[in-house]
Design brief:
A four-stranded antiparallel β-sheet has the order 1-3-2-4. 20% of the residues lie in helices and 30% in strands. Strand 2 and strand 3 form a beta hairpin. The longest helix has 10 residues. By secondary structure, the chain is an alpha+beta fold.
């Protein structure tokens, strides 16, 4: 899978650190404090072509208001870098 969505209200996962390991792809971390949801996405060109982020945001929109969503992009490779 290229994306994972979890609810961190559960005290069993509250103390875990979450992350995505990538090579040259873009790690995307999405969270909403409205219902303690977090999504981790591994976004390469295949994910971009398939609309992965749109699918994840649609799924989150079923649970929370998108105005409560924060998105962070991690480092990735580019032609210049």
């Amino acid at each position: 899978a290229d994306a994972w969505i979890a609810n961190y209200s559960n005290s069993d996962i509250r103390n875990f650190a979450l992350g995505i390991e990538t090579a040259d792809c873009v790690p995307v971390l999405i969270s909403s404090s409205e219902k303690n949801l977090v999504a981790l996405c591994h976004c390469g060109w295949r994910s971009a072509v398939s609309g992965l982020l749109n699918l994840v945001l649609k799924k989150l929109a079923q649970e929370v208001s998108l105005s409560s969503v924060e998105i962070v992009l991690g480092p990735s490779a580019s032609v210049c870098n």
